[in-house]
Amino acid sequence: MKVFLDANVIIDFLDTTRARHLVACKLFETLSLRHTKIIMSEDILTNIFYINKNKHAVLQFLKSIEQRWDIVYFGKQVIKNAIDLSLENNLDLEDVLQCLCAKENQCDALISNDVNFYDCDLNIQTAETFLKLSK
After folding, report:
1. pLDDT, tens digit, 9 for 90 and up, residues 12-29
2. Distance separating alpha carbons of residues 78 and 27, to the nearest angstrom
3. How far is it, in rounded angstroms, from Cα 94 to Cα 91?
4. Are 23 and 12 in contact (CB under 8 A)?
5. Which CATH number applies to 2-133: 3.30.300.20, 3.20.20.10, 3.40.50.1010, 3.30.200.20?
6. Domains of the chain: which residue ranges?
7. Looking at the predicted structure, is the pLDDT value of residue 135 above 90?
8. Predicted confidence (pLDDT) per residue in 40-56, tens digit
9. How far apart are CA 27 and CA 116, in angstroms?
């Protein structure tokens, strides 16, 4: 299985004060135990670094995942399609980019804690839902 992680799930994992921290920890454990291929886009690296206060911890985390996870780029076509869709439908560009990137990389699911995440005909689930369905 190939899973794309949205930035909010990774931030939940890194920030122990966030409400969904324990769920994110359980998710990461489950993904690891099942040898799930984890995908994230390059821009998520800078997003989590910018948002998280503990810069050293973020850098250590990034160092630990850089060889194990696939960190992918959008590419011009994904960017063009995301901009067009966002303009035509008044959508959140960041969500559309992530979703189209996940599709481009043949992900089976996209995990995001944003319940209003753009639906691009991909299996989009919250961390909680993914864990429930994984039992």
Report:
1. 999 999 999 999 999 999
2. 28
3. 9
4. yes
5. 3.40.50.1010
6. 2-133
7. no
8. 999 999 999 999 999 99
9. 20
